[in-house]
Amino acid sequence: MDLAHLWFWIVGILFIGYFVLDGFDFGVGMSLPFLAKDDVGRRQIINTIGPVWDLNETWVIVAGACLFAAFPEWYATLFSGFYLALLLIILALILRGVSFEYRHQRDSLRWKAGFDTMIVVGSAVPALLWGVAFANIVQGVPMDAHHNFTGTLLTLLNPYGLLGGLTTLLLFFTHGIYFVALKTDGEVREKARRLATRSGILTVVVAAAFLLWTIVMTADKGAPLLGLTIACAVVAAVALIVSVMANLRGREGWAFADGAVTVAFAVLTLWTALYPFVMPSSTDLAHSLTIENASSTPYTLTIMSWAALVFLPLAMGYQAWTYWVFRRRVSRSRIEKAVAAGAH
User: Fold this and answer.
1) What's the per-residue H, E or C state across the chain?
2) pTM score, two decimals?
3) pLDDT of residue 1
4) Staple partner for 300: which of 99, 104, 187, 296, CB 3.0–4.6 Å?
């Protein structure tokens, strides 16, 4: 395997890490209106991701930087053609980050309610649009001979793209609720378990339709990794069903772990379906970007490979250590004591 193909898979792994980690952050944010009846409950939910949400979000920065360095042609076409969609994602992430930091700066319920709404919106918009974007990348978009995107934002809002967005929205929502159930106690935990069952069943139906459509579309294109695509889709489907069953039995840890496997293999399904292209053209397949014509020079990829070999394990080790330090449940009683003491 040459370095260009290696970096295609490394970039895929980085996006898998981002969607698994920031995916449940999105789900936790979207769950606020459904699981919390008062400010203490909302603080309990938000505090489950308080120590880790910004660390989870750095994965997309690393993935984008590696995409820029390893595949500059792909980066240029993607970020220029999907400019409005990506701008909406960035604005939503900014709103969410600001809300986490500022909602506790005043005791006004109206103030907090406004920022809570921003958390919900700032979580739902990226959860939807990331799915729309990646579904369109796999399906193919109109491009000219110079690899310029010739469509509009409405071009991306096609049936397959919207189904992909709905799938990621529901996957992240359910994945996040599993995490809330795993990290909280009392009424919030029980509500999360009940809601995860309902959302999980709906997610199974929608995700199955999207994965089946992806397999059929990939087969029609004669993709070289069709067998692997089917295998990844089957693993994702089985893991999703198992996660729902684990949640029904009150095994929050297993439900969350299986949810992570579901997200990882769902993204891997799209990545294997995309190979050997990085951005196929729906106008003329000859206009497509492939791993070969979109990659950087071998020298650049060599330097990147040595840097990744050194720094990627360190980053993953640090993140694993952070999760270990903040592994305890966030109890309602602890939040109530903090409120009584006047702490934020």
Assistant:
1) CCHHHHHHHHHHHHHHHHHHHHHHHHHHHHCHHHHCCCHHHHHHHHHHHCCCHHHHHHHHHHHHHHHHHHCHHHHHHHHHHCHHHHHHHHHHHHHHHHHHHHHHHCCCHHHHHHHHHHHHHHHHHHHHHHHHHHHHHHHCECECCCCCECCCHHHHCCHHHHHHHHHHHHHHHHHHHHHHHHHECHHHHHHHHHHHHHHHHHHHHHHHHHHHHHHHHHHHHCCCCHHHHHHHHHHHHHHHHHHHHHHHCCCHHHHHHHHHHHHHHHHHHHHHHHCCEEECECCCHHHCEEHHHHCCCHHHHHHHHHHHHHHHHHHHHHHHHHHHHCCCCECHHHHHHHHHCCCC
2) 0.94
3) 61
4) 296
The overall average pLDDT reported for the chain is 92
Residue 39 pLDDT class (50, 70, 90 cuts) = confident
Q: How many domains does the chain have?
A: 1
Q: Of 273, 314, 236, which is closest to residue 20 (Cα–Cα)?
A: 236
pLDDT at 179: 97
Query: Tens digits of per-residue pLDDT, 154-183?
Result: 899 999 999 999 999 999 999 999 999 999
d(CA 298, CA 2): 9
pLDDT of 342 reads 64
pLDDT at 223: 82
Interacting residues of 138 by C-beta distance below 8 A, sequence separation 6+: 214, 217, 270, 273, 274, 280
pLDDT in tens, 74-95: 999 998 899 999 999 999 999 9
